[in-house]
Amino acid sequence: MKPRGRGLLCWLLLLPLVASRAYGGVTLPQDGVIRVGSKSFAESYLLAELAAQLLESEGFTVQRKTGLGGTLIAYEALQQGAIDLYPEYTGTLSRVILKRPALTGRPLEVALEKRGLQLVAPLGFNNGYAIVVPEGLARKLSLDTISDLASYPELRVGFSLEFLNREDGWPALRAYYGLPQAAGGIEHALAYPALDSGRLDVTDADTTDGQLGTFALRLLEDDRQFFPAYDAVLLARADLPPAAGGVLSRLGGIIDDATMRGLNRRVSEEQLGPARVAAEFLEARGLAGDAHGARAPTAAGPGFGHILRHTLTHLKLTGIALGLACLVALPGALLLYRRPRVARALLYATGLVQTVPALALLALLIPLVGLGQAPAVIALFLYSLLPVVRNTLAGLFGVDPLLKQVATGIGLTPLQQLLRVELPLAMPMILAGIRTAAVISIGTATLAAFVGAGGLGEPIITGLTLNDHRLILAGAVPAALLAVAVELAFEALERLLIPRHLSA
């Protein structure tokens, strides 16, 4: 490719980043606002609410950025300044983030200070990892310890995706205990129902999980002491206002293991919502009133206003990404299709992006553009490129060569051939590619909630986390209807733009 062509493509690829900034996608520090984050599991939501409501009771303006996926996404958001604090655990900090398993106490604090971070409030409880099996199976096979699993290689083992890949997760545990099972991945919210139905035998759990009693699960004893202590803390940036840190320190040591398990049970079983449970706990301890707990839609189900807001955000994300993809892919394909080798390279490049898992791509984009809509728009843009490029090239290459010869014979210039012959004949394929990209974007955009971009993925992920089917349906049904509406809209557009004899 000529240098001028390479420069053009570079500018085109920078377009989604510029546009996402123009639409306010990049999260930048805001004076006077404390941004509280959380991971995407119930206890993290609840602890984040405790911190947020306590700060609000003292007059601080708080912005919630909850449900940020796993450890690495939340930690990266903290490092980049997209959030100011989030709940974390000392074992995770030492083993997963700092890669120093034996680090505790003051040495842990010093190591974090070197990264511009601080521990604000040790909360008082230990939420360690545990391996659990159904109580009935445990009695049948006399399973009491993790070591006992070594005698039953046929057991069906499935762990949360984070546990499968952590330094202190399944690979290290398997090697440490000499376990023979091969484990698969399963979303944590789906693991307990799978155990209850008999489709799974072993999974990971948190020792403070409120659902352990609901599903009659036995925690296997860590008889060789593999797991470290996971003391709950609030991990914050070093530049957190001292006054805010002073307020949050009131949470220090006020929650023991049993209390945390009970709070989690109220969220998971009674489905009261993290905001309400947090408000009632703070009020009972004399730390804050209940003014902030009543507003959460999770306790009574989401209203129409919330669904509409999520739907409009979803449309905004997919619309911007799809528009940018068309703006880049269509001119690029038109410029390069007469150069088959370069066009093939473009197809390979766009196809390569499709092999990267969406959540991994979002996590990789956080250090570059922060949280919010920017990484979501860029990821959706990249995933939309392949269908548009592939179908545009296929449509152009599929034009009958005889027609091209006739066009040349009657004196049409290459540009006239493109506009009058090739593009009209390729239009059905081009529109089909854009339609495919639109549907892919609508589905993939649900994962944007993991990086604080909102959309219909927010109620879905929250519902999975909190075991609230109302929330799941509040996101899944509109997303499905949106996909159907897009299909119908493109069908109407095709009838409008494409002559009947070409669409047959």
Keywords, separated by commas or semicolons:
D-Maltodextrin-Binding Protein, domain 2; MetI-like fold; 9% strand; disordered N terminus; 504 residues; 10 strands; three-stranded antiparallel beta sheet; mainly alpha
Question: What is this structure, in a nutshell?
Answer:
By secondary structure, the protein is mainly alpha-helical. The protein has helices at residues 3-22, 42-57, 71-79, 90-97, 105-113, 135-141, 161-165, 170-177, 188-196, 242-248, 257-268, 274-284, 304-336, 340-354, 358-369, 373-397, 401-409, 414-444, 457-466, 469-497, 500-503, and strands at residues 33-37, 61-65, 85-89, 117-119, 129-134, 157-159, 183-185, 203-206, 217-220, 232-237. 57% of the residues lie in helices and 9% in strands.
Q: How would you portray this structure in words?
A:
It is a single chain. Strands 3-10-4 form a 3-stranded antiparallel beta sheet. A 3-stranded antiparallel beta sheet has the order 8-5-9. The two termini are 37 Å apart. Helix 17 (401-409) packs antiparallel against helix 18 (414-444). The longest helix has 33 residues, at 304-336. The chain has helices at residues 3-22, 42-57, 71-79, 90-97, 105-113, 135-141, 161-165, 170-177, 188-196, 242-248, 257-268, 274-284, 304-336, 340-354, 358-369, 373-397, 401-409, 414-444, 457-466, 469-497, 500-503; strands at 33-37, 61-65, 85-89, 117-119, 129-134, 157-159, 183-185, 203-206, 217-220, 232-237. It is mainly alpha-helical. The protein contains 21 helices and 10 strands. The chain is elongated and about 85 Å long.
